[in-house]
Automatic annotation (TrEMBL):
Residues 150-300 form the PurM-like C-terminal domain. Signal peptide: none annotated. Mg(2+) 2 binds at residues 47, 75. This is Thiamine-monophosphate kinase. It is an enzyme of class 2 (transferase). Pathway: Cofactor biosynthesis; thiamine diphosphate biosynthesis; thiamine diphosphate from thiamine phosphate: step 1/1. Reaction mechanism of ThiL seems to utilize a direct, inline transfer of the gamma-phosphate of ATP to TMP rather than a phosphorylated enzyme intermediate. Mg(2+) 3 binds at residues 30, 75, 211.
Length: 321
């Protein structure tokens, strides 16, 4: 099977590559063409996943396809964008039809869940690596950025934290757990649910937003810096799943929620008057803190004591002291 046959069989022929609203030209030419309605902006984000760094190698290609697109789509959710399309740059060590079949199947399922159409890509040989670029649309001026948090706003998250990081020892085969505990954590890791509906709902409501990929404290630091405010996180308010608590205990679950990555849950700041409406529409939302004057992120216990840990989250190139 040559390169063009591979592209045709597994990607051009895939259900998610058959075009749709906004896709004027899909796979097969030198560029794809997207139509953006007047009054809307294009939101664009790229994510690269490297075997052995972002996922175990070898791993299940079906799950990898699902997860790669979910992770990319989560950035659209964080901006309040409506999903439109994506491209896939795929570097493969060999062209293994059964691997590609399973990978394309996982990718298709997530593309359908997220209403994203495959419009192009690139296929090369080398160590396994995927780069996905997602495109979304958002009414002009309404994208949720990291820069608008106001003193007095509430700090909220879209749902339970720490499940992705909690799953990691299971994914890596370092630990085992009974299915009732392992399954929900592994499901969260391999098939994160990008909070697309919540992101779109928060347009014109939230003052800032992002998706948590590197750990709550590290990612809240980005909002604090971009908005020139201080974020206060209450440890007692962290939403933790029963599976995570059963697997890691309270200390471990809190550590996973605060500093672990791979959650793909939204964190956002909200004027207090918006809270009842948001809770009524999205019951998984939790208030976990407040926006204060100042800078940085501070973690407090039930008595209000500062218990901010030194370690913040994962960085590929850590800052030198
Ligand atoms: P070019 O040489 O002009 O860059 P290619 O031969 O690389 O084009 O690709 C041919 C067509 O197939 C293009 O439309 C490209 O976007 C698409 N394509 C290539 N690889 C992939 C892939 N992995 N997934 C989806 N589309 C792909
Ligand atoms: Mg070309």
């Amino acid at each position: 099977m040559g390169e063009f046959e591979l592209i045709r069989n597994f990607f051009a022929a895939a259900p998610c590559a058959q075009g749709g609203e906004g896709v004027a030209l899909g796979i097969g030419d030198d560029c794809a063409l997207l139509s953006v309605p007047a009054g809307e902006q294009l939101a664009i984000s790229t994510d690269t996943l490297v075997a052995g760094v972002h996922f175990a190698d070898p791993c299940d290609p079906f799950l990898l396809g699902q997860r790669a697109l979910a992770v990319a789509a989560s950035d659209l959710a964080a901006m309040g964008a409506t999903p439109l399309a994506f491209t896939l740059a795929l570097t493969l060590p060999h062209n293994d039809a059964s691997w590609l079949q399973a990978f394309a199947h996982g990718l298709n399922l997530m593309a359908q869940q997220c209403a994203l159409r495959l419009i192009g890509g690139d296929t090369t040989r080398g160590p396994l690596c995927l780069t996905l670029t997602v495109f979304g649309r958002v009414p002009t001026g309404q994208a949720l950025t990291r820069g608008g948090a106001q003193v007095g706003d509430l700090l909220c998250v879209g749902g339970e934290l720490g499940n992705g990081a909690g799953a990691l020892p299971l994914v890596l085969g370092q630990r085992t757990a009974e299915p009732a505990i392992a399954q929900p954590l592994l499901d969260h890791y391999w098939s994160p649910k990008p909070q697309l509906a919540l992101g779109q709902y928060l347009r014109n409501k939230a003052s800032s937003a992002l998706d948590i990929s590197d750990g709550l404290l590290a990612d809240c630091g980005h909002i604090a810096a971009a908005s020139s405010v201080r974020l206060r996180v209450e440890r007692e308010a962290l939403p933790l799943s029963s599976a995570l608590l059963a697997f890691l205990g309270q200390e471990g679950a809190r550590e996973a929620a605060l500093s672990g990555g791979d959650d793909y849950v939204l964190a956002f700041t909200l004027p207090p008057g918006e809270l009842p409406g948001v809770l009524a529409a999205h019951g998984s939302v939790r208030v976990i803190g407040q926006v204060l004057a100042g800078q940085g992120v501070v973690l407090v216990d039930a008595t209000g004591r500062d218990i901010t840990p030194a370690h913040r989250g994962y960085q590929h190139f850590p800052e030198t002291p």
